[in-house]
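Worked example (supplementary).
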Amino acid sequence: MKLHAPWIASALIMAVLAVAVSVIFRDSLSRTAVKSDMATDVRTVNDRADTSIGEIVAGVSVSQSFEATEPNLARIEVLLATYQRSNTAPLLLSLREYPSNGALPLRTVEAEPDTIRDNSYHAFRFAPIADSSGKAYLLTLESPGAESGNAFTALIGNCDCYPDGALFLQGEQQPQLDLAFQTGYQNRQVPSVAGELVDRMSQYKPWFFKGAALPVFGLLALSLILLTVGSFFSSLFSGRQPRPSWAWLPIACLSMVTLILVLIFDPAA
Amino acid sequence: MQIAGTETQQAAGRLAVRRVPETLKKSVAFLAQDTFLVLLLAATFFSGVLWAAVIPLWQIPDEPAHFGYIQDLGERASLFPEDDYYPAEVHTVFRRTGLAALPFHPETTQPFQPDSRDGPQEDEIKELPRSLRVERNTPEENAAKSYPSGYYLLASLVYRTLSSQDIFTIMFGLRIFSAFLTTITMLFTYLTLKRFFRDEDTARATVLIIALSPMYIYMGMAVNVDVLVWLLFSIYLYLLTRAFTDGLSLRLNLLLALTAALGLWVKQTFLLAVPFYLILVVFLNFRRTLTPSHSLVSLLVFFATIAALDGWLYLGGFIVTSPDVPEGTMNQDRTVSGFLRHFQDYWPLYRFYGFDSFWGNFGWLDTSLSQRMYDFLRWGCAAATGALIIHLVRSAISRKIDALTLFYLSISITFVFAFLVVSYLRLTSGEVWNLQGRYFFPMIGPIIGLLVLGVVSLSSARVYKRAVLLALVAGMAWFHADVLIRYVIPRFYA
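After joint prediction of all chains, the assembly is encoded as:
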């Protein structure tokens, strides 16, 4: 028993690692954002960005009206910038019907400061609005906790880049300016996240990296990594003792692969 | 005399013929003895293949530039590129797939075809005319063409083998070739670390940390000149370590010179092989394992070999610097204080590009990990560096300092310092250039080796060492899986 103790210990550690990987995979794929992102088609509304609107500090509101072209509006992506610094005040996006006539926002989303990147689109995700097609909306950006030197900005096009909408600063329309933004509509059916992932990863790939080959390579790489780590642990535990044959390794590996398959099988279906 | 000479030659020939199967047998026996090594190489290769399958076409920094160079040589029988421009196919495919919109825009993915395993334009791209592979349709210059053609000539052989196939098969075939080169790199890194630590467990843990580094495997399967630079550097470091431990024989000296000469055919980074060699000679002289006359002969052989094999390449105008130096915003006075001021001003940028991207920043450096993860890595590395300093001070006080550790430290510092100087020169020339963590990968063996040495040497208790090695390896395995599944796959496909 003493002779086999290192192998048992290493097999156990391998099993723990395999479970950890399965949990990461399961957790990552079952996140609502992943599934909703896969089901969402993004449409560019205005991608021209010539300048910034200035710091969005407390008391400043930047709004843009637009017309939804499809049902299930579920995302608005705004081109934001950080002034190359780490700002700490969150940014709020609210969405109202336009004209709003003082109505409460339909959706409000808060962007955590550390998720906003410089000169990049930030996705504000919200529950889909089923009857959005053909309706006009007003998106508004505010940051009540921000002050000068600790605030984000949004980028705008210096033109009437989007004729079906207008930019408003503090409620006043700004002619010849439009926010750089895009909208997302959650209209696609994604019955299985894992299946959709394999389909997407296969696109623009050669025949040997399409379809079933992808999970096969994934499991092969994972098994080999676990075996290598297991082999290292067994030698680490055995020290100067004579090392028994490595018949335990394939058994441990097989059990782990079975475990992984059970755990990851269509986690978000 | 003549007959004796011939007989000797015949005997030598028979010996050489006999040696081939013997060497093969020895290699197989060596691998069969070391199960860990076999598994390590298989794991390195197949994780490289997995990453190659995951990362979309040309979503690794500069991959289109390197592919353009390979395509240029693959389509024509030449030692050097025809001109400084991209073949038209690269731009056409990049634009048509929608993949050109991804670099620097982490929220953007390629357009996908619903319920299909073929991209929206995949069939059209596969049927693009072959003439696009030699045509030029853009005045954009290919920066990769400032490198020597060593890697590109080798990769062009793979290109030619696959040239009847579509661009996807060629590109991803080249990535698998890179994963293969990185696997050989891992072999030499392991052999070097075994000599450095003289302790199998620590050497194995260190090489596993490297093999499990997601950024290393990501760049290791890229179509990029660096994969061959790493391989040659790993061989060079192995030879240096052997020369340090066994003495600098004439054979080793010649092998060092040949590796350096070959490396200079691949990338200018190999100029650093020269100071490394000089440091070795100085150390061997201090240790009195090399006499001054032997040193002189070795130096002459080393430099004469390099001059003979690379002199014409570097002095004959075949190697040029970057074709274009764009107007930069970091232009400084070329003074040390000016550079230090610049370094102080842009410290967060250096930390981001130099440190964070060493551990993981994918896509075109647009897919960062979480701040918490970077903070953990920063503090972890700072602690390991502190531990190494404590170890060195303790060793110096007790007069038991390990010469090989000092040698590794010297060449590592030289390497990092050389890159800082290059950064200084380029920035003060007005060029926009960022010192990236992946540039340090040729020295990843000594760098990680020294950090691990620092951590394990804090206590001499065997339990402590085992626990540390176990935690480091298990942590890296988890880190690798987490990065791939939680950051990389969603970035490109969600």
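Two points are worth noting when inspecting this output. Chain A touches chain B through 55 residues (CB under 8 Å). Residues 5-35+192-264 of chain A form one domain.
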